[in-house]
Write a structure and sequence with these properties.
Elements: E1 3-12, E2 15-24, E3 27-33, E4 36-43, H1 48-58, E5 71-76, E6 82-87, H2 103-108, E7 134-135, H3 136-148, H4 151-156, E8 160-165, E9 171-177, H5 180-193, E10 202-205, H6 211-219, E11 224-227, H7 233-242, E12 245-251, E13 254-259, E14 264-265
Parallel strand pairs: 3-6, 7-14, 10-11, 11-12
Antiparallel strand pairs: 1-2, 1-13, 3-4, 5-6, 8-9, 8-10, 12-13
Helix pairs in contact: 5-6, 6-7
């Protein structure tokens, strides 16, 4: 599985240490069928032929299980990662899923997946420049508050949670869903309905962080995003670009910040480098 090294600042107890972590690579892959763009999906590079064949099968694009089209890998980016694949599929092999590539969007719940071309991925928005900060101890308190109201998880162990907080750590909203993206959407939606979105400074998430959750926080203009698990490389790249403070591995008394650490305070911060 492809990984890449990223620098971060690890907060643990009363110390802050510079670290280098290996994160899982997340990149977009454009799929062309019969010379036309079909869709874009996110993935970790590697085994792309198997990914494309499996995806087209599950979405009903190829109706004949015995048919294996040639998959031509092309357009490598500067890191040698394939960004576009071409397939030739005879008309009699195409299933009903081919008629609506946009249906992939509802399956993925992703800000990229389901679009037809990589050129469609650009968006316009002012980079977040919020100057206020949150103490690292408050981040732990946020997760404690979120976990206490995860009633569905406590009963089933099978749901994700997301919560929104003010800069002072006040819980504004907490939601659960089987999908972590849906939990974030529910939080943002509730803040919009209650007209309290402007109070929101931080979103906490119970799972990992990939590109689409960064975009959801950015579009909601919420400057800090904290996760229990790891971020992907693309999540960190976009967090840096869009002005999002991204913390991951927020467990017990530690967390690692991968972008815009100026919004995280640590009263007892040291200058140790490791």
């Amino acid at each position: 599985m492809a990984t890449s090294d990223y620098q971060g600042k690890k907060f643990e107890g009363n110390s802050a240490t510079n670290v280098v972590d290996s994160l899982t690579v997340e990149e977009a892959l454009q799929i062309n069928i019969n010379g036309e763009p079909f869709t874009v999906t996110m993935r970790t590079p590697g085994d792309d032929v198997a990914l494309v064949r499996g995806l087209l099968n599950s979405e009903g694009v190829i109706k004949d299980h015995d048919f294996t089209p040639d998959v031509i890998l092309k357009n490598e980016n500067k890191n040698g990662i394939v960004t576009i694949v071409d397939l030739i599929i005879p008309e009699d092999k195409l299933g009903s899923g081919y008629s609506n590539s946009r249906s992939l969007l509802s399956v993925s719940s992703c800000g990229i997946c389901g679009k037809k071309e990589l050129e469609e991925l650009s968006f316009i928005g002012k980079v977040l420049d919020e100057k206020k900060s949150v103490d690292i101890s408050t981040v732990k308190e946020m997760f404690d508050k979120m976990q206490r109201v995860q009633s569905a998880f406590q009963q089933s162990g099978g749901s994700h949670a997301a919560a929104a907080f003010s800069f002072t750590g006040k819980l504004l909203c907490s939601m659960e869903d089987i999908g972590r993206h849906n939990a974030v959407d529910k939080v943002v939606g509730d803040l919009l309905v209650s007209k309290s979105l402007k109070e929101a400074a931080c979103i906490t998430v119970s799972g990992r962080i990939s590109y689409e959750i960064i975009i959801k926080a950015f579009k909601a203009r919420i400057p800090i995003l904290c996760a229990v698990s790891a971020p992907s490389t693309l999540a960190v790249d976009f967090a840096k670009e869009l002005g999002i403070t991204l913390l991951a591995f927020c467990r017990e008394n530690r967390a690692t910040c991968y972008s815009h650490p100026h919004r995280i305070k640590n009263i007892h911060q040291s200058s140790k480098v490791g």
